[in-house]
Design a protein that fits this description.
about 350 residues; alpha/beta; TIM Barrel; three-stranded antiparallel sheet
């Protein structure tokens, strides 16, 4: 199924330029952009995957990962196909690098997705598995249908998007996890064929111009982006530009796609990264893709009381009391805890429940 898109313009040489992301793909009729899903047809850019998905699943919100957004609740997750980055270390390459539309086994309208979220007891719907900015029009329509049913929306994204579409996209999101791949332009150019600066602009925008709750994830790859110097610069930038309360997740790499020659990330590397970031003033720093309760739990920045205990995606300790406007406060000292909380935590745990849509 195709749908007309926004954010493109005609060039003088009969080509059309896609203005969604900083790649600015220039297309002749019948050509596709690097993302593969936005194509030039009939002298306009269309989205070829509108209403189609690579599958639906109900996950714990902590898997996105989001540790400060409605903890313990289920989220209906789905993606489509394609991506506007070319990360050689992609952990979802079978979806994001797909050039075969038979990967898109499910068809669902925005209203069907919102209704399925309600029926599944999900508090939110996540656009994930591949980057939702490339299916902006579909994501926005799904978000509108979800908000009409009081279902929140979550974007799991690399943040590689131009300023104008960025405003529209995040205007319909309640929360986001942004992949900050590294903190050097050379890494982005060599391994993602992208630009670090555009991602940093998205992070600044989220912090200073929106009410979107967001967290950051950096996948640490041995020998590529895990030096003390880079970890210090990355966490110092977050502290200086975004403040101490934006949660940062350091996630362990496993060999995949075009980087099977690299070893898995040792837990010691994640701990070292976490220590550096905390030392630079960040209040909430987490270790991901490893089993480490202390590195996965949330602590009060003022008194160091454990606020939310986590064992993988299972919540244990809960020492947050509710304030007004979905605020959370430390039970021990009363300090305000950054995040979006709504009463006691959910009990979804680590369950993962695939969903199938009945085709008509």
């Amino acid at each position: 199924m195709t749908a007309a898109t926004r954010y493109w313009h005609k060039l003088d040489d009969d080509r059309i330029q896609c203005d969604l992301c900083p790649r600015f793909c220039k297309l002749r009729d019948g050509q596709r952009g690097l993302c593969f899903v936005r194509a030039c047809e009939g002298n306009e850019v269309v989205l070829t995957t509108y209403g189609r998905s690579s599958g639906f699943c109900v996950d714990p919100i902590e898997k996105k990962p989001l540790n400060h957004f409605l903890p313990g609740t289920p989220v209906l997750s789905f993606g489509t196909a394609g991506c506007n980055l070319t990360c050689k270390f992609c952990q979802n390459y079978d979806i994001s690098k797909s050039r075969e539309f038979d990967k898109l086994a499910e068809q669902a309208s925005p209203e069907m997705i919102a209704a399925a979220a309600v029926q599944a007891g999900a508090r939110s719907v996540a656009f994930t598995y591949n980057d939702p900015v490339i299916f902006l029009e579909y994501a926005v329509d799904v978000a509108k249908a979800c908000h009409a049913r009081d279902i929140k929306t979550v974007a799991v994204t690399a943040g590689y998007i131009c300023p104008e579409p960025r405003v529209e996209f995040f205007n319909h999101m309640d929360a986001a996890n942004v992949d900050l791949k590294c903190f050097t332009e050379s890494f982005y150019e060599k391994l993602c064929t992208a630009q670090l600066g555009a991602v940093l602009d998205t992070l600044r925008y989220l912090k200073h111009e929106t009410d979107v709750w967001f967290e950051i994830t950096t996948l640490l790859i041995p020998g590529e982006n895990d030096s003390d110097k880079e970890l210090d610069e990355l966490s110092s930038w977050i502290m200086d530009e975004l403040g101490p309360d934006v949660p940062l997740h350091f996630s362990a790499f496993h060999p995949d796609w075009k980087m099977t020659d690299k070893p898995r990330t040792p837990p010691e590397t994640l701990k070292r990264a976490r220590d550096i970031a905390i030392g630079n003033g960040l209040n909430y720093v987490y270790m991901g893709n490893v089993h480490d309760k202390s590195g996965s739990s949330t602590y009060c920045p003022s008194c160091n009381t454990i606020l939310i205990g986590r064992d993988w995606y299972e919540l244990s300790d809960w020492n947050i009391r509710m304030g007004g406007n979905r605020e959370g406060r430390c039970n021990n000292c009363g300090d305000l805890i950054a995040g979006v909380f709504d009463g006691p935590p959910g009990d979804w745990g680590r369950k993962r429940t695939p969903l199938r849509f009945k085709q008509v």
